[in-house]
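Input.
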Amino acid sequence: MGAVMGSKNLNAISINAPVIGYFPLLMNLNLAKFTHWKCSNGTQASNYYWQL
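Output.
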């Protein structure tokens, strides 16, 4: 039973891995647009992003 559950969890992780990897990339693109739009607040926005 434990082995089956572990196998299911591993499958869930492997399926979700591309989505999890894609989400920070999407956030980085949004952050880049935001910092480009508000150049003066770029550093502040970047610091805020890394704290999340």
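Residues 24-52 form one domain.
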